[in-house]
Fold:
Amino acid sequence: MSRVLVVNELASRIAALDHGRPIRVAVDGVDAAGKTMLADELVAPLEQLGCVVTRISADSFLNPPEIRYRLGRDSAEGFYRDSFDHGAIVAAVMSTTDAGAVVLIDGIFLLRPGLRDLWYFSIFVRASFAVTVGRAELRDTPRLGSVDAVRDRYARRYVPGQLLYFAEAQPERHASVIVDNDDVERPLIVPVSSGRGVRDHD
Structure:
């Protein structure tokens, strides 16, 4: 399935949801899975389908370094538990109250307990660590100084932190849709149980 068809299919599913209240949509996945790219691509087709889209990124709500690294810069548990100001994420998502609006947020750990009940619809972008670490090497080497530094950071902090997330939160079990994004040109929508992860508003 081509990328354009996948994006349009996801946009159609979101736009078809009850618009009596804002539709809160999360795009989750591991680092470098392609969450931000997919969320950005959803905006135009959603708008073409008549939705007013508010676009948010969880990366705008990082905790300050003294909180993020309180367990150490290499701590996997610290990465999972302390990276984000969850209260600020909730406040930002809930600030849009217009009926018919789509609040679309991308980020890691969005299907963790305490956040996952926010989402009316959620997409988990699946990609193997072999693929995502390779993407990270291209993306993060200028910032971290070398490929070895990137590999070390992912081996010590990021991948173990994501594995902790998988074990504790089981995000794929709670997603409305899983998108396999190992091949960015030809992503796949993975079948899940009917209705999984789609919830009524409070």
User: Anything to note?
Assistant: The CA atoms of residues 3 and 140 lie 25 Å apart. The longest helix spans residues 147-169. Residues 3-189 form a domain with the Rossmann fold fold (CATH 3.40.50.300). DSSP finds eight helices and six strands in the chain.
